[in-house]
Automatic annotation (TrEMBL):
The lineage of its organism: Bacteria, Pseudomonadati, Pseudomonadota, Alphaproteobacteria, Caulobacterales. It catalyses: 7-aminomethyl-7-carbaguanine + 2 NADP(+) = 7-cyano-7-carbaguanine + 2 NADPH + 3 H(+). InterPro entries: GTP-CH-I_C/QueF, NADPH_dep_7-cyano-7-deazaG_red, QueF, QueF_type1. Keywords: Cytoplasm, NADP, Oxidoreductase, Queuosine biosynthesis. The keyword Transport does not apply. This is NADPH-dependent 7-cyano-7-deazaguanine reductase. Belongs to the GTP cyclohydrolase I family. QueF type 1 subfamily. Substrate binds at residues 73-75, 92-93. Pfam families: QueF (PF14489). It is found in: Cytoplasm. It comes from Brevundimonas vitisensis.
């Protein structure tokens, strides 16, 4: 089966990183296995955004799991979308939930969850979790594989 990529604007071309999440173009492609229940995972261990108060960089390890329906997220557009947060000021909770909702709105997946494992700010690590609802019965859900922050302990 060949996938029609004619409607994609970023794949196969050089493109500058978007300047904000609002201007980033997130694209989708048809799922070649829409009738199968499976999990797709994207891991972004070097996600960055800015503190909206101080302007200092914040760092997170994001894990995005979803059970596709008719659509898959196009990975280059996802990378560019996540990169667009580098100059975006928002709290950890806002960044994590906004990413999850944007992907869910684009794809209408059977199910989606995102784990945002943020490195400490002010000595306190913040982990943020969001999902679209209960996972479908029979979906294999591996652990996200990110240990809780232990510092030097």
């Amino acid at each position: 089966m060949t996938t029609d990529i004619s409607g994609l604007s970023q794949l196969g071309v050089q493109i500058a990183a978007p300047t904000s999440p609002e201007t980033a173009v997130l694209e989708r492609v048809p799922n070649p296995h829409p009738g199968d229940l499976y999990l797709a995972r994207f891991t972004a261990p070097e996600f960055t955004s800015l503190c909206p108060v101080t302007g200092q960089p914040d760092f997170a390890h994001l894990v995005i799991d979803y059970a596709p329906g008719d659509w898959l997220v196009e990975s280059k557009s996802l990378k560019l979308y996540l990169t667009s947060f580098r100059n975006h000021g928002a709290f950890h909770e806002d960044c994590t939930v906004a990413v999850g909702k944007r992907i869910a709105d684009l794809l209408s997946p059977r199910w989606l969850r995102i784990g945002g494992y943020w490195y400490p700010r002010g000595g306190i690590p913040i982990d943020v979790f969001w999902q679209t609802g209960a996972p479908p019965e029979g979906l294999w859900l591996p652990d996200q594989g990110v240990p809780t922050y232990r510092g030097r302990g």
